[in-house]
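Risk register update: the risk of archive-format incompatibility is retired. Evidence:
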Amino acid sequence: MQLSSYLRIVRASAAYDLVVTLPFALPWGFSAVHAAMATLAAAWSLPGTVPALDPLHMLLANLLGSVVVVWSLARWWAPSVLMGRLDAVARGLFAVWQVYAVVHGASSIVLLFTAAEVVFGVLQLQRVAPPESEQTASR
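Archived output:
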């Protein structure tokens, strides 16, 4: 994959994270996301539970959202192969813990987020061709 294409993927993953995660960083935003997830999980009769929201859930969601928003902005403003690789590792960890939560009773609606984690993680692990100048110099 060409570097320019790879950096577009890093920025796209950052934009996705910013849009999806910003509500988690704000108490009123996460309340709305939580309510929507509970409503959708019930409407779709999905297995698992969406527990009632309590202050500890809110704190953890807001902390997670705040960190991911800052991480997203860093990748948007300074995309690089290193940022993409680190993000791929983070996405792998997120996906593992999301599946773990679902296996242990969390609503399977969480797997909607997992799909994006896996897709962007795999894309950001792709081999990146060296810049044209390096290819020419090695000839």
